[in-house]
Design goal:
The protein is of the alpha/beta class and about 290 residues long. Helices cover about 60% and strands about 15% of the residues. Strand 2 (about 110-120), helix 3 and strand 3 (about 135) form a beta-alpha-beta unit.
Length: about 290
């Protein structure tokens, strides 16, 4: 049976934890607003750039640029994007479960898998399981810059062009709303042609005039598109991470409030029992003196 002092000490500890979770929720809410704004501004640009290049690639000679070349799939690169920090609910575990499932599926199809991990949680996950990683990047969470996407894109393009890998798939959390994010698997390379399913926005049936030339345009835009799509994935992941952390801290604060209420009730009952016992001792003593 815990003493009054023990219960009071526990109430104080839970109250201190509640202050921390409440402060973390406010910090995450502020970061979420900034991350969400950047992500929403990037989405239409990334979508349109990907659509335009797919339509251009449909009528282009594949030999014009190495990133247009398609070859038999032998080695598939899986790029897993997680956060560097925890305390964000199931944000990282959902990504890692989906990545493990996708990797197992590729292996069952008879292809070799190469893995790159972005974020400390992904790096630690694969290292604990002694799974070799081709590339690792950490320290991006909370301060995503375009240079980070350029660094990753440069490495992936170099390995794709040198035929070290034949296909690249990004796995990350796509932001849906403050309370919802979805694990997304997006093929980055090779660049697939447009399928003509986008209605009035589809340009696949058009003839294009190139200035200065097809080669020069593809030489600039194809690597740029890889950078943009990776940067978009980073921003989506960051917004989803802050939303998940805000929700997790809000739930933790609610749980702390409920625990404090229960402990306070327990404290009051124990205090009342102690007072009753003291009164009974006093009455018993008085009766003994009569």
């Amino acid at each position: 049976m815990p003493t009054l002092r023990d219960i009071k000490r526990r109430i104080k500890a839970v109250s201190n934890t509640r202050q921390i979770t409440k402060a973390m929720k406010m910090v995450s809410a502020a970061k979420l607003r900034k991350s969400q704004t950047r992500m929403l501004e990037m989405r239409p640009y990334a979508d349109k750039m990907g659509t335009v290049l797919k339509n251009l690639a449909r009528g282009a000679e594949r030999a014009l640029h190495p990133l247009l070349l398609t070859r038999p799939r032998k080695i598939v690169e899986v790029v897993v994007i997680t956060s560097d920090r925890g305390l964000c609910g199931a944000f990282n575990s959902n990504i890692l479960k989906a990545a493990a499932k996708h990797i197992a599926h590729i292996k069952r199809e008879g292809f070799e898998v190469s893995i790159s991990a972005i974020g400390k949680k992904a790096v630690d996950y694969f290292k604990r399981r002694n799974i070799p990683l081709r590339g690792t990047w950490t320290g991006f969470s909370g301060r995503i810059a375009y240079s980070n996407a350029q660094e990753v894109a440069s490495d992936l393009i170099e390995n794709y062009v040198s035929e070290t890998i034949d296909e690249i798939v990004l796995i990350y959390n796509e932001f849906k709303s403050v309370i919802s994010h979805q694990v997304t698997e997006r093929k980055l390379l090779p660049l697939t042609s447009a399928s003509g399913q986008e209605g009035s926005d589809d340009m696949s049936s058009m003839d294009f005039l190139y200035e200065p030339s097809q080669e020069e345009i593809f030489a600039v835009l194809l690597p740029k598109n890889v950078e943009i799509q990776i940067f978009r994935a980073f921003l989506e992941s960051q917004a989803a991470e802050e939303a998940a952390r805000m929700t997790a801290m809000e739930n933790a604060t609610k749980n702390a409030n409920e625990m404090i209420d229960k402990l306070t009730l327990q404290y009051n009952k124990a205090r009342q029992a102690a007072i009753t016992k003291e009164l009974m001792d006093i009455v018993g003593g008085v009766e003994a003196l009569k």
